[in-house]
Design goal:
This protein is of the alpha/beta class and 362 residues long. The chain contains 10 helices and 17 strands. The strands form 5 sheets. The chain has a 6-stranded mixed β-sheet. Helix 9 packs antiparallel against helix 10. The N and C termini lie far apart (46 Å). The relative contact order is 0.12. It binds zinc ion (2 copies).
Length: 362
């Protein structure tokens, strides 16, 4: 599987007229090799050549870890460097002539800069060479995303156990984080518990604010499964009864989210999915309060291509996986968001999140 991915990269390099792609530890490296190295100061770097051959340099002390990850099974030649060698010189001399290289976007600037110096020509960002491949998920990857969706649904289903007036967002957040792990995730990636006015900040995390009676609470949570694939789902709760105006706004949001989910299918552009949700909020006077794009792709990273945003004319394709998460954010008052991760099938979409999208009263 990893060798197939490397061959697809090589094919893209041939098409774009580049001779090498350099990839340092990141989701990109994990995708191409299965090797999950930490991005640290010592150089670990995969070099994929346009002819399909590949070399990876690792610090000598990390060679056993690289071997254990079975990098060599994918046909990657492994070389190592000891503490006193210059890893950039060693890698480039092992490759021979390098003239028009790309680097993965997630490479540290420091490493790109050293590569550029040793190669003697400018490096360019790989951008779409990697993301065009990564964004189309295989059936195994789709299954992994659905498993992640089920795991995070399990956490939302238990929200009544933790979310109640008198507790702080931080206390509730800690219980949620424990539950994310218990539901099968390997790591907790984020926990947003945004009560009352904090709900108006889409990326609020948790605070010591005490949750009040009748306050809406936006809960956006996600983690990474042992498979490497991520979950991400938002539901909005109310401890008691929400204000009448809020309930009306929420009904509009629910309609907007449902309309975008019903509309998304292969062939429609990413921006048109955004427009479907946005137009409904606009028609009800909530357009100015929907301050972010409708969604993002998801896979080995929580945010990756394709982005569901105005200006993205890319058509959806079978294998795309992305969020549909419109919201409204009224400064100093409250906010709401409904977020599902969906995967694009040959005829429509399949939802990985299936808990109630109603304003759930706890
Ligand atoms: Zn999201
Ligand atoms: Zn989210």
């Amino acid at each position: 599987m990893f060798n197939q991915r490397i061959q697809r990269v090589a094919e893209s390099l041939r098409q774009s007229g580049n001779d090498f792609l350099f990839v340092t530890p990141s989701a990109d490296l994990k995708y191409l090799t299965g090797y999950q190295a930490l991005p640290l100061e010592r150089l670990t770097c995969l070099a994929v050549k346009s002819d399909g051959s590949s070399v990876m340099i690792v610090p000598t002390l990390e060679r056993p870890a690289a071997e254990a990850s079975r990098v060599a099974d994918s046909g990657i030649e492994l070389i190592d460097w000891n503490e006193t060698e210059n890893p950039y010189d060693k890698l480039i001399s092992a490759l021979g002539k390098v003239s028009n290289p790309l680097v993965n976007n997630l490479m540290w600037v420091e490493k790109a800069w050293h590569l550029q110096e040793v190669i003697g020509s400018q490096v360019h960002l790989a951008n779409s060479v990697l993301s065009d491949i990564r964004e189309i998920k295989t059936p195994d990857e789709i299954a992994a995303l659905h498993a992640a969706g089920r795991a995070i649904d399990e956490v939302h289903e238990q929200m009544h156990l933790w979310l109640r007036p008198g507790r702080t967002e931080r206390e509730v957040g800690r219980d949620i984080a424990d539950a994310i792990l218990k539901a099968g995730h390997e790591t907790v990636d984020f926990v947003i518990v945004a009560s009352g006015p904090n709900g108006a900040s889409p990326h609020h995390e948790v605070s010591d604010r005490v949750i009040g009676v009748n306050e809406p609470v936006v809960v956006d949570i996600g983690g990474t499964m042992p498979s490497g694939y991520c979950s991400d789902s938002t539901r909005t709760y109310v401890c008691g009864t929400a204000p009448k105006q809020y309930v009306e706004y929420y009904a509009v949001l629910q309609e907007a989210q449902r309309a975008a989910v019903d509309y998304a299918r292969p062939g429609v552009t990413c921006e048109s999915v955004d427009m479907v949700a946005r137009n409904i909020l606009k028609d009800h006077g909530l357009g100015e309060f929907f301050i972010h794009r409708t969604g993002h792709g998801i896979g080995l990273e929580t945010h990756e291509e394709p982005y569901i945003v105005a200006g993205n004319l890319k058509p959806l394709q079978e294998g795309h996986a992305f969020s549909i998460e419109p919201g409204f954010y009224i400064p100093n008052k409250y906010g709401a968001r409904i977020e599902d991760i969906v995967t694009c099938t040959s005829t429509g979409i399949s939802n990985t999140n299936n808990t109630s999208r109603d304003l759930v009263s706890l």
